[in-house]
Amino acid sequence: MASKPILDIHDKPSATQLVTLSFQHLFAMFGSTILVPQLVGLDPAIALLTSGIATIIFLLITQFKVPAYLGSSFAFIAPIITVAGLDASGVAVNPGNAMIGAMLVGIVYAIVALLIKTTGYKWLMALLPPIVVAPVIIVIGLGLAGTAVDMAMNITVDGVKEYSGLHFSAALVTLFAAIIFNVYFKNILSAMPILLGLIVGYVYAMGIGIVDFTAVKEASWFEMPNFLIPGVDYEFSITATIVAAMIPVVIVTISEHIGHQLVLGKVVERNYIKDPGLHRSLLGDGLGTFVSALIGGPPKTTYGENIGVLAITRVYSVYVIFGAAIVAIVISFFGKVMAVISTIPTAVLGGISILLFGIIASSGLRMFVDSQVDFGNNRNMVIASVILVIGIGGAKLEIGSFVMSGMALAAVVGVLLNLILPGRDKGVTDVHDLD
Q1: Containing structural domain, residue 367
Q2: pTM score of the predicted model
Q3: Is 60 exceeded by the pLDDT of residue 159?
Q4: Residue 9 located in a structural domain
Q5: How far apart are CA 397 and CA 416, in angstroms?
Q6: What is the number of structural domains in the chain?
Q7: Residue 74 lies in a domain
Q8: Is residue 99 part of a domain?
Q9: Tens digit of pLDDT for each residue in 392-429?
Q10: Which partner for 248 in 99, 188, 384, 411 could form a disulfide, CB atoms 3.0-4.6 Å apart?
């Protein structure tokens, strides 16, 4: 029998509880949410702001029944870098391209949500079985492995990358701190290893003198996030490259969304696939992503870190999640706080990325195990092998101005192979029982 919740879904906490518990959720998601924009050259302040806005949108769409927090999605890191590009200092060259792509992703979510509402969900599970999704998840993690190691080991001097043992030591301290918090600590500390690892790595980086505080001194206490408005800050133009790079990632993020809804449902003892319905939660995720991109934020996804906090604390109140969203919005306007975040050395980000990207890849392996995928079956072996080699090898398909490569191409090929090759199961092929 599950433990009785301290605060159930619609229980209202006291003012003190609300503040304390809301900050707890903020800390859980903070490290991951600000890490994504740091890696793709976007503004952490706008990512934090839009995480709060997207969460509120999600709560509204799901009728305040689902206590989920939406943060920056790691699945879109490589596609954003592809369409936006990075300059020598790590700033996105064409961030508008990433915003356009994210808006299109939000629209795809809405279309899928409409189809689910009218036709049910089993067709989606048959289209995205573990044999397709798991290797694509592995590709996402391993495809970013080189980026993480490069950030951890190298610095740029006069436009040339050089190995730096000093910086690599900061990466290792960050990495091992995050591992220690994740493995050896219990309760709430184990739910936020990314944030705590970043803090330990940052303190160490200050100690060895590789943190530049110039930006903090120059920043005002109150500053507006760097909004990116279509038609004002960039020309809204949908290209084949943007579509090819961003849309296929939906194959993974929708599967991730379903998984989170199932896990969250088990934690709070509710069936969110039926009430408020998968179509509502998916629409909330998509609309949150669309609005986020409309003002310059990265794509959003429900966060496993915050689900972990719910499980540990047994506080399921949507008022607490709403409070965390408000706190995130408010903090995004504190210039000094955002300036401190901007001073985090690349090596520290690289150290935490080694763990994060490895966990992403390992979660794909775990899906194989949990789903009991039979690799004695040649069909499964072929699909997984082709996806892994195309994705990790960086294969590219060019037809005129249309370019699809790496993870996106691997995902599409995986779906097609699953549909074409004989032996596909006719029923729901996901490891989870949605009924």
Answers
A1: 15-420
A2: 0.86
A3: yes
A4: no
A5: 15
A6: 1
A7: yes
A8: yes
A9: 998 988 887 788 888 889 999 999 999 999 987 644 44
A10: 411
